[in-house]
Here is the input.
Amino acid sequence: MFTSKYAVVDLETTGHSPLKGDRIIQIAIVFIENNQITNTYMRYVHPGRSIPPFIHQLTSIGDDDVADAPPFEAIAQEVTDLLAGNIFVAHNTDFDLSFLQKELARCGVSAWHGKKVDTVELAKIVYPSLPSYRLQDIAESLNISLKQAHRADDDAEATALFLLKALEKIEKLPKETLSRLHERSFALKSDISSLVFEALKRARGKESETRYSLFRGIPFRSERDEVILGDAPFAFPASSIQKQDLLRQINPAYELRTGQAELMDLAWEAFTEKSQIAVELPTGVGKTIGYLIPAILRSYETSKPVVVSTYTNHLVDTLAEEIEKLEKALNIPVPLTVIKGMSNYISLGKFEELLQFNDEVYDDSMTIMQVLVWLTETTTGDLDEINVSGGGQLFIDRIRKRSMKVKKDEKIADFYSRNLSRCKKSVILVTNHAMLMNDKDRHEPLFHSLGGLVVDEAHQMNQAAIQIHEQVFSYTHWKYVMGQLHTFSNGQLLFDMQEILTRFHFNYKYSTERLLDSYEAFMAAFDECMMMLANSKPHMRHSTRSVEIFDDSLRAHPCFRKVLKKMNDYMSIAENYSAPIRSIASELTLLEQATSNEWQYWLHEMKIKAGEWVELFLDEQQPGTTMWMEKDSRSLPGSLRIKKSPIYSGTVVQSFVQPLAGETGIVWTSGTLTAGQDRRFVLQQLGVSDDIPLYTFDAPANFYAGAHTFIVEDMPDIQQVSNEEYIEAVADALIQTAVAIDGRVFALFLSHDMLKKTHESILDSGSLEDDFVLIAQGVSSGSRHKLLKTFKQQEKAILFGTTSFWEGVDVPSEQLSAVVIVRLPFTSPEEPLFKARSAALSNEQKNAFTQLGLPEAILRFRQGFGRLIRSSDEQGFFIILDRRIDTKSYGKSFLQALPQSDVKKVSVQALVNEIENCYNE
Here is the structure.
């Protein structure tokens, strides 16, 4: 039991800056002693000014609430007396404690002194897998009562309840974990070290729990128990009544939907007859359950796993959660294994080596502590489970598994190998398209003896197959790798290597000079080559960005061979430089072994880079591939990227599929598998034979009744006005739409440049600054999913997204939402891969626009619409700003491809009126 006394504090204020006149309007303190809440204190405070409207909206505290309250001057001494002798706790002490100290100083009261604990910092360490560390998100995840967020009394109580949960969890951590946490806890910003030390003192006399194993003194979760499967838990539900009864076990209110029942029957038939089918079923109609039930039963029947593949790792994780929910609802065992690429998993050997270094920055220390706690929980070793900072991600990248070779003691702690061994004992294997396509290149294929295969999000398989065979040169990544062996300063790798050579009295002066000279020669050749590429004239330019086909005239330049020679010379010398140290490996300390291993790791990375250099610049370019260079004139040569890609994916996809054909059933499925009138466009891209039947199902009647499609007819013609004029009109339309909807707006762009300028235009106008949060891909910090999460957390927001936001994300529409199509989603005819594919079609006497450009755009357009309505009780607006949909002959092809919905042509003002009318209804 923790014996310290804690004061958990939360403030509500008129703003963030006491120096600019902001004041406290509510203060709450919850007192904790002996692991229980002992007392609470809450006071409203008169700020001496009116409470700003947005603060009133956020906190529900208005001028009436504080009318009779004392100013802070009247209670300042009372507050500081209450806090005396307690550890100060707050959810973000940088704000609450800092604000409080400034207010105490203003009131002439002595500053508070003592230890502080920031529960944001504590939550990241003790609950490293939480998706968010906002207080309301923590409360929701941990089932902590939080009556109303942004009220000091409710927030302080929730923070106190969280602290108690965190203390309880710390108490249960293995003593070895606590010891390692304590070592690094002094690098933290708050006094969490005292909490860890208290628990460590009590844990030292306890036995380690059997659910943990030790790897070089690091506790990790032992292998989970194997599930023994019996006969199939139930027969396939052949009739509609049987299907309905089964679905109502999942949810008593569940109604069997049109298409879902047919998908169950079709998937079951494909699995049992070992045939292939393709099925398009709208998102939100129950597609996942439609194929999962027959997949589970087929696996039981054959004692072979069924593989379900989807596009991204985020979708893989989402699908795994759905399967776990289904398992609980049906109360049947469904052993599940998620398989991602090797580098998604932790290398415990690499992690333990890096723990030998103690010169890490704050983000590294925090991430190490998160990993130590996570290892006591994870059964997969999947690093995607940990929620780390941007800086922490750099550390995570260093502990990824890179090789199947492991030392003898690491075999029991190799999560990736452990996952692979589970595959044969699983009912469902969930993986991503790239992992699936790479299977044929594995020494021991994973996906060869199957009960069935489901390719979900099949329309994305084309992109995935191309990406796994795409080779990319990035100037910044090359520079990073090349710099790892060279940096000569205290604490850097070359310095540490010389420390070892000195301790063992090796004469390294000459070999160091050779190493440095060789590196300089390598760098000179590399930089010369980069400047040649940076100065080449582009064929295509988007403002400062340009794209250039990498043709034979560029490839013939002699600098590429010169770089390879200088690089090989340097690597040879670097290998010899470390040879004396490798010869005395048994005499090295753990830290010295880690240094030597780190040198070999980065040398290996450079050898990989040398191989990539040969394949990109020196090998003869293979037929069916294209190569191009991207750069930005504002940052040369730093922005240089060179890509080589196959033109078509069909051969890649079918090289995996063909060995399975006739051996197992295959279901290709998606919510958007057809591209308007070109029904087999996606399947043809994947090389799927025309003999494979394609089934398409509409959503149930009235599913899209809440969808309103508008064509804004008074927008300027995109082909007749300047970019700036069109952007100004887009910004105005978005502002008016957002104000009318008073909620969330999803704006889909094709160009990052137009997105950025529209975002800037709306910001500069100031029209939405008090009410709306503007979140822009490539401008706001964070990954796509982080931006989307932030968007969902706001009541009023505009999310500006480009191509990757057109698909695979859910737009929340608790009240009203809108998807705004800024331009019809045609691929630029100058985009290198599209250009190469168009040229190949032209050589076959085919029309590249009708057979490639238009169906691709229609498919993406349908996916944009699919972001809007995800269930029959949702309402939303699909707004098209590009007038070409009305003025061009191909425009009707886009509209015909949409599910049936009400389509109206309106002016911007009429659009606002229509939205307000729907809102009022």
Remarks:
- Residues 5-170 form a domain with the Nucleotidyltransferase; domain 5 fold (CATH 3.30.420.10).
- The CA atoms of residues 394 and 685 lie 37 Å apart.
